[in-house]
Design goal:
eight-stranded parallel barrel; 3 domains; alpha/beta; binds zinc ion; binds 3-methyl-2-oxobutanoic acid; 20% strand; TIM Barrel; 16 strands; 502 residues
Length: 502
């Protein structure tokens, strides 16, 4: 049945198991947008919804079937005619439709959920598959709570539903109960004890209640399963489902497993953000593959290692998941190597500054802050400006008169080309007057494209931090300044930017 015996089929259920999560509901338009991105990602199957559950879900499956043509579109049902009729109707426009029907297989479900017995449930399972088969060729059967089901009974059920026409048999660890070895053994047991098993694909569908969903799925495919059911960001009921991005990157990282798939991993990060935003479900910072910190290094030893060779502390190239590069986060634990890396990235060269001095000031700042951002480094370097741009511009004196009647007027003494020059100018505010006075001295005007003033902490005696983007003749540079005087901070930022043109 399978052309490539090692081909893993990726079944995405973000829009069904993922969307069941409270607060994650999506409109049909949003679902289509995600489904189109899943199609670009290269998933084999999209579980589009549970049509009987609501008119909205029905509509979404219907519309998605029209909008997405490459992957199989799958609709979930319980093992009854009403659900199956509804799913078949919702799938009527699908190019490659699949009905996903099933019933509980554990004694727990059989007894408490259905108040029934094994024989009756097996009969219902077979009937449901036969009925679904009267609508579409491709039928997936799920044996709910298979993780806790008796293996002998499960094997009997799987054999019967394949006999009835199931093309895929899904063995869900619905409650995330199994250990990887146990789950793998279950799959192997089915492979070895179901006589028609080669007529269907075994699918793994693992929940993450014990944090084992991904490990269990991998164990399942190592033991013979060839379809993995998963969601973007691992979103799903309770603790979630197997995370698609984890499966894909495990398969990519461990070539020795020798499995193939058709996912283009470079879209993973973007799709993760899209799902997180649309479902209003933040991705935890330390989430594998797509978390904010997945490629961020903060300890000095790790930063030094990564800067020497990325592979010292990274087993995945961030570009493979669509992240430009790993991040070296500056904290009080960072060393000179990391600081210098950022200085260079921001356009400062080691010859122009004394790294030891900057590093000391960096540590003082970092001790009071959790994380040092680019702004903070540039702020540190803004402090350097007056000392280091000796051949450029430096403000020697600044006096501004403000008031209600006699409009703002600034007097500036600027060291320009090695000599001090003075100018006075009026403006519509003190900063405007200061900029005009500076421009008089240098004989040229620049465009200020961005201008931000931030208080560092609080209080009227606070230090203000200014950043500005200044442009001229197609070039633009950012300048930074700080002072307890916001006019002086602005002037410093402006001069810092102009010196970069020099
Ligand atoms: O977890 C589960 O058992 C399910 C089935 C409905 C496939 O989501
Ligand atoms: Zn599930």
């Amino acid at each position: 049945m399978l052309h490539d015996p090692n081909r893993i089929y990726i079944f995405d259920t973000t829009l069904r198991d993922g969307e069941q999560v409270p607060g994650c509901q999506l409109s049909t338009v949003e679902k289509i947008e995600i489904a189109k991105s899943l199609e670009i990602l290269g998933v084999d199957v999209i579980e589009a919804g549970f049509p009987i559950s609501s008119p909205g879900d029905f509509q979404s499956v219907l519309e998605l079937s029209k909008a997405v043509r490459e992957p199989i579109i799958c609709a979930l049902t319980r093992a009854n005619k009403g659900d199956i009729d509804c799913a078949a109707e919702a799938l009527k426009f699908a190019k490659r439709p699949r009905i996903h029907t099933g019933i509980g297989a554990s004694d727990n479900h059989i007894k408490y959920k259905f108040n029934s017995n094994r024989e009756a449930i097996l009969e219902r399972a077979v009937e449901a598959v036969k009925y679904a088969k009267s609508f579409v060729e491709d039928i997936e059967f799920y044996a709910e709570d298979a993780g806790r089901a008796d293996n002998e009974y499960l094997a009997k059920m799987v054999e019967a539903v394949i006999e009835a026409g199931a093309t895929v048999v899904n063995i869900p660890d619905t409650n995330g109960y199994c250990l990887p070895e146990q789950y793998g053994e279950k799959i192997r047991f089915l492979k070895e004890n179901v006589k028609n098993i080669d007529q269907a694909i075994i699918s793994v569908h693992c929940h993450n209640d014990l944090g084992l969903a991904t490990a269990n799925s991998i164990s399942g495919i190592q033991n013979g399963a060839r379809q993995v059911e998963c969601t973007i960001n691992g979103i799903g009921e309770r603790a979630g489902n197997t995370a698609l991005e984890e499966i894909v990157m495990i398969l990519k990282t461990h070539h020795s497993l020798n499995f193939t798939h058709k996912i283009n991993s470079k879209h993973l990060f973007e799709l993760s953000g899209m799902v997180s935003r649309m479902m209003r479900m933040p991705v935890q910072a330390n989430k594998a593959i797509v978390g904010k910190n997945a490629f961020a290094h903060s300890s000095g030893i790790h930063q030094d290692g990564v800067l020497k060779n990325r592979e010292t502390y990274e087993i995945i190239n961030p570009e493979d998941v669509g992240i430009n590069q790993s991040e070296i986060i500056l904290t009080a634990r960072s060393g000179r190597h990391a600081l210098n890396h950022h200085l260079e990235r921001l356009g400062y060269t080691i010859e122009r500054i004394d790294l030891d001095q900057v590093y000391e000031r960096f540590l003082t700042l970092a001790d009071g802050k959790k994380e040092i951002k680019d702004d903070d480094i540039l702020f540190l370097m803004g402090h350097e400006t007056e000392n280091n741009y000796k051949n450029g511009l430096a403000i020697k004196a600044l006096k501004v008169v403000c008031g209600d009647h006699d409009g703002p007027e600034a007097t500036v003494i600027l060291n320009y080309k090695g000599k001090d020059s003075e100018a006075r100018a009026k403006g519509n505010g003190p900063v405007d007057a200061t900029i005009k006075a500076i421009e008089q001295i240098i004989g040229k005007s620049f465009n200020i494209k961005e201008f931000n003033i931030h208080a560092m902490h609080s209080g009227s005696d606070d230090v203000s931090k200014v950043d500005m983007r200044v442009s001229s003749e197609g070039k633009s540079y950012k300048g930074y300044g700080f002072s307890t005087d916001i006019v002086r901070a602005s002037a410093n930022a402006y001069i810092d930017a102009l010196n970069k043109f020099v």
